[in-house]
# Entry
Amino acid sequence: MQPAMGTCRSAWPALLLAWLLCLAGCAPREPFGAEVLTLTQTDVLTAGGAWPVPAPAPDARWQPATLPDAWDSSRPDYQGYVWYRLRFATPAGWHGPLALYLPSVSMNAQVELNGQLLGQQGRMHEPVTRHFYTPLIFALPPILLRPPGQDNELRILLMGYRLYRSGLAPVSVGPAEPLQQAWAVRHFWQNTGTLVTSVLVLGLALGGALLWLRAPRRRMYVWFTLAAAVWGLRNLNFVLTDNPWSNLWWNQASLAGAAAFVGLFALFTQEYSRWMQRQPQPGWRHTAVPVGYVAACALLLLLPVDTAELRRLFLVLALGALALAAWSQWHLLCTAWRTGSRPAWAVAAAGAVYLVLMLHDYAVAADRSTVGQLFLRQYAAVPLFMAFTLVWTQRYRQAFEQVGRLSQGLKQQVDAQRAEIERNVGQLMEAERSRVLSGERERLVSDLHDGLGLHLLTALKMARDPATGRDALAEVLADCLDDLRLAIDSMSNIDERDPVLLLASLRFRLAPRLQAAGVQLDWQVVGEVAPQPWLDAPRALHLLRVVQEALANAVRHAGATRVLLKVEALGEGVAVSVIDDGLGIDQAASAAGVGLASMRRRAALLGATLEVGPGPDRGTQVQLVLVG
Amino acid sequence: MERAIGERILIVEDDPATLGWLLAELGELAGVQASGCASVAEARRWLEQHTPHIVLTDLGLPDGSGIEVIALALRLHPQCEVLVISIFGDDTHVLSAIEAGASGYLLKDSSLEHLGEQLQHLRDGGSPLSPQIARTLIRRQRARPAPQGDDGLGMLTERELEVLTFIAKGFSYQEGAAMLGVSANTVRTHVKRIYQKLAVNSRTEAVYEYNLRQSARGLPPLR
# Structure
């Protein structure tokens, strides 16, 4: 992006220069070579304002005149038809197609040669086709010409309006080719080129409107959009040959539009220079003069103005426009000077071009003795268009870079904060983990010590004792495995905290073994037992131990053949019962004493109530009620 | 055992004592030809040279996981049954082994009697499902989106879910069968289907690859 912008900057003055050279070099190439006759001597006959215009009477009083005939000086404020009669002798050297070229025929013309109608372009009567800024060319049939050396009579009927610089420029007849070329060049600069500038300017208006939509509080864009729209529409005056309004009103609108543009552009430059220098928008007080000027221009459209007043108004508006344009230019130059920004210089240069061309146009307008000169002000649109494209391209690029920087900064900030949060969370988790771990470690150690360690110690003693039977040893070792299993079970229930699943796993594991030993382990779940949030790993282990102890008592000491393990929903809590069909509490109690004590201790740790009593039929019922 | 098993069995177990007693116990079964390996690498070499009917493997092996042995055995011999040797038979490792294609597990503390019984279980309906595994399966089934089209291979039926539910609640096959009003054998069949569905992906994949190799050698494919 950077190199491209650099190229654009250095190319800018060269482009401006090329454009100026183009403007100068492509001006209409008139006069012509010797084979073309350019006629300036004529007779005129005023024909009034009524259509159709009758052919001039044979005794009509023609007046001699010289072309160009500018009506502003020869017949000021006249509006209507005028006959022009021009004579020329047929040259000997004419060959090929011939043409009649009328560079300026404001407003419109009809042409006859030796009494034969050559044609007319558009309408000669109201609403007259507006050819006030359009060159006309007609094919000249050689058959209509008199033999070489004899005189031909060319009659041109001109329809003219006041205020349109009406009149007839010198007329050229001769070989078609040079005349067509001259017509094409003039037509390009007066009509096609002007249309192009209108399109460019209306494009600028569209761009400005889009910017304004994005930043409704920026009056700069409003002024710019309005200025460009007014200017672009106003310049269509040169191009549109038929229009829905009266020709006089159109002239009024065109004049007001040109002036309003200057006012609106002045308003824009004021805002623009403050914007470029990063100053606040100007208050309404500072903009009163140009706003008033623009309002006056708008009012002009509504006033029915007669010719003399319009001329005076034009003078006032023109003076105001000059002052405002100079004021704008001053703003632009100051801005460029203070900011040193290349786009600002480009805008100032384009503004200067506008000012120069405006002066040129004023000079043309003030010269009331001739017709057919070019108006050039609209061509300032080209450098202005380029300059503003540059301005907004640069702004866009800057905004783009700024967004990039901002998002970069934001990302860094977010990253830093995330790292900070992660560090904090990490520390917290580490602390929590080590707290849990040390708790778990203590529990595990004491558990291994009391449970597995004790069992293993017993097994060791038994193994060393020659009197020990293999079965007894196997039983103790199976207890070791059960203990280990219980510890693992208590851990794996951590997520579920479901007493049913915890005890179901115990039952699943023990049932086949008890079955093998001739004891049937029944299982019953009553009601919907809810998960118990308090049932963490240590409590789960206590619960499992109590149940296991009760089962062991039933099988080993009470000699039961059938044991029921029941889990029952008790409100939010749960009751766990082990009911056997053994000897009953009294007979079994002595042997189960130690086991019972340990069960009570664990029940107390669980905050549960433990009831040991006779079963429903016979045997023993151990019930643990856990309410959390 | 009255019934001759008549099979070639491979045991992959790194604990020499366990390997020793398993070899000894299985060797006593009629018609069984048991071999032992202590690592994944050893098992690979053995499997490349022999065709087992049953493979018993521990999960924690010195040079890798028993899951690798399962995959290897199924890839080379898709028709063989693989059992995982486990201490308790209900931890989540067993579940992942079943999903890898194992047909069940073998409890390490089994006596000879139990060994025969467990091999019989395998034929009847796979190893008994623990409540823990049943619970995990139910949870997983609920989390799974409804199947699209007819590709419901891995989906469990309503009945199978009912079977899983009573197992998760701690009831035995007989108790569950009574609750559902069917026979215990029907329940076993459901459990077998559940096992098959668990392993279905790894199984079909293995069979598919095996058939590819078979057809490359011009041999008939497995059904």
